[in-house]
Design a protein that fits this description.
single chain, 377 residues, TIM Barrel, 8-stranded parallel beta barrel, two-stranded antiparallel ribbon, 10 helices, 14 strands, binds flavin mononucleotide
Amino acid sequence: MKHASLFDPLQIGNITLPNRVVMAPLTRMRAGAGNVPTALNALYYVQRATAGLIIAEGTAVSEQGQGYPSAPGIYTQEQIVGWKTVTQAVHSAGGRIFLQIAHNGRNSHSSFIPGGGPPVAPSAVASTLSGFTRDFRQVPIETPRALEIAEISSIVQDFARAAGNSMEAGFDGIELQAANSHLIDQFLEDGTNVRTDVYGGSIKNRTRFLMEILDSVTAVTGAGRVGVRLSPFGQYGGIRDSNPMKLFTSAIQELSGRGLAYLHLIEGRGSEIGLGDALHEDALNNAKLFRPHFDGVLLSAAAYTASSAASTIEEGSADAIAFGRHYISNPDLAQRIADGAPLAPYDRSTFYGGGELGYTDYPPAVKDGAIESMDAR
Ligand SMILES: Cc1cc2nc3c(=O)[nH]c(=O)nc-3n(C[C@H](O)[C@H](O)[C@H](O)COP(=O)(O)O)c2cc1C
C-alpha cells in the first residue's frame, strides 16, 4: 500500500474513520426543486463512500442563508427527506457523512431573500464576488444590510434547527461553515464586521456569533458530532482581517477543550476555493501554525497531493486531509491513493450546475489490469 499513513483509522467524536482521506465540502448546485437533494445527488455521494469521511456540500440553514441557485437546504421537511435518501445510501455502502451547514450572508442575492431586500451581513460592506440569482444569472453583487441584534439570535436558532434537522436526516454529524467568507467568517473578520455592539470590535465580540452558534448546535447534537471549518488568511470574496494571526489563534483557542469532532482548516493557498490552481509556495502553513492551539482532531485542506497529504500526517501537522477538486473527478480517490494510481483530471466547466455530466460520470479506476487515467475533458 502506498501512503500508508493515510490509512490508519481515526476516531472523530463518536465515529471511527477507516482512513484519513476526507472528501471536502463541494458546492455543485445540482439539488432539485425547493433546494431538495435528489437521487442523482445520492448517487454522487455513494460513489464516494470509500472516503474516510464525506463532508457534504455547503447547505443553507434557512432560505435567507441560500446564496447559490440549486444549492441544497436543510430547513424544510422535503429537504430532510431528500437528505435521508443520501445518508441511507452512503451508510448502506459503508460510508460516513457529515453535512456542512451554512449561511451565505453578504454573498447571497436579493432573489433568495424572503420578501426581497438586500442580503444580510454583520455590516453594510459589499463582497468583491459577483452575485448569483435564483435563476442562475451572474449579476453585480449588492451591498448587504447590517443585521439587527434580534435577527442575529434568530439566525443562531436557524443553525440549531438545521443541526436537529441534520440528525433527523441521518447525518453522522455537522460541520459549521465558518470559512470562505460565509456569514460566520464575516462576523469574525474586521474587514467585514465594523459593528460597534457586542458582536463587533474586540476579537471576543467578533467571535461571539460563532460561539453562540456552536453552543446552540452542540446542545442539539452533542459536541462529538460537530466540526468547525475556518480559513485563516483566506481572502475569498475580498474578506480581510487586520490581524488574522491574532484573530484565528484566539478563535481556535476558544474552540479547543470542547470535545468537538474536529477543527478543519483551509490552507491560505486554497483561499480562492477553486478559482485558481496555483500553489503559493510562500503561503503560511495553517495546520502547523494553529495545531498547538487546538486539543482535538485537525483536518487540513487545499491543494494536497497524495504525497504532501501523507507527509503532513507523518509530520504530525494534521490528523486527516480533505481533498476537494480531486474528489470531483476521482470517486474512488482513497483507493487510487492506496494503489498509487494516477488521478483523473477534473473539468472545471462542469463544477457548478447541470446534471450528471461532470458529476456522476467520472468512473472509478479499472481494477485487475490497466488503471484508467481519463483524458482531460
Ligand atoms: C467546486 C467547488 C465547490 C466548493 N464548495 C465548497 C463548499 O460548499 N464549502 C466549503 O467550505 N468549501 C468549498 N469549496 C472549497 C473546498 O472544500 C476545498 O477547500 C478547496 O477546493 C481546496 O481543496 P482542493 O485543492 O483539494 O480542491 C469548494 C471548492 C470547489 C472547487
